[in-house]
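Please produce the structure of this protein holding pyridoxal-5'-phosphate.
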Amino acid sequence: MSGSALFDTYARAPLAFERGEGCWMITDTGERYLDFGAGIAVNALGHAHPHLVAALTEQAGKLWHVSNLYEVPGQRRLGERLVASTFADRVFFTNSGAEAIEGAIKTARRYHFVNGHPERFGVITFEGAFHGRTLATIAAGGQQKYLEGFGPKAAGFDQVPFDDIDAVEKLIGPETAAIMLEPVQGEGGIRAFPTQSLKRLRELCDKHGLLLIFDEVQCGVGRTGKLFAYEWSGVTPDIMAVAKGIGGGFPMAAVLATEEAASAMTPGVHGTTFGGNPLAMAVGNAVLDVLLADGFLDDVARKALLMKQGLAAIADEFPDVIQEIRGAGLMLGVKCKVSNAAFNAALREHKLLAVPAGDNVVRLLPALTITDADIREGLDRIRAAAASMSTQHAAAN
Ligand SMILES: Cc1ncc(COP(=O)(O)O)c(C=O)c1O
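Below is the modeled complex.
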């Protein structure tokens, strides 16, 4: 697709998809691919889910956009439902993950400003993090490859090695406002923070009057088998960014916060034109209808086990290709011994779509609605891809 009118920012695979059905995507030439990437954890309910299609088309015939100058009933409803299902008391809707992270950072800084501490604007983050591509979120993510060439790094972001809580403790100073992390790093290679670390971070925040921000843009919305990943640890944040799966493919995101943390976000201090528009809210509410239905998340956890066991067996069979299987729920990482890019390409050869990540990992993030049959089919393709890369296998044959 290169050589087109588009910015050349993506190394796109030479594939164009025309339609999707559940976990399958069909190209313009009719080839069927099993989608274990779900648009990088976005299509949480698969492609063309009838409930989402109905919600979107019904709203499309009524009203698309009114701006936040007026009440948006769907926004109020989705906000109340998110509050009822999480630690949060307040919600602010945005369009993308990066905007939700920006909103989270602004909420934290403004909280300290209004409480008499304008000097407290620093945010401590962890190596391997990915928080988005805006100027503030690349500073928060701290990855040189994303910062290079974009001027001075935005002030107020300091990073410590992954899961190094002692380093966090040492870094906390009079200017620190918040600690921010993904409970399970996505782009960083499906790396989960141990519960004990999250507990220590909560204690440090409480001790020093800091706000704990969770980035659940990728690991949230049922991905790990709970509605939000923080639930596994019992540790609650003060502020959380949510995106991707919450819109099931429709661009939308949200900042969730406790009453206290959100208390400084008063009229006029923050805003968005598109955030929370009626189309997005109709889809977001429809996504929650499915996710919150009795037994849905239990079934995600059951299927996740099926998938993890299958992957573990493949890893045992091809130790020269796969080092380990990691992750929770349907957010799984295959840590490769071969190059992850090469393994991802082999998967695509076998018509299975996955997503490379840092730490030489390939991410598997299928729709939460995946069937047992599609899991088995996917495992067969992953096994075949691993076999095609295994020297042992080549020698044996
Ligand atoms: C954990 C995390 N945070 C933030 C973002 C940024 O979201 P967006 O691309 O919607 O701006 C991403 C995107 O991949 C992400 O995975």
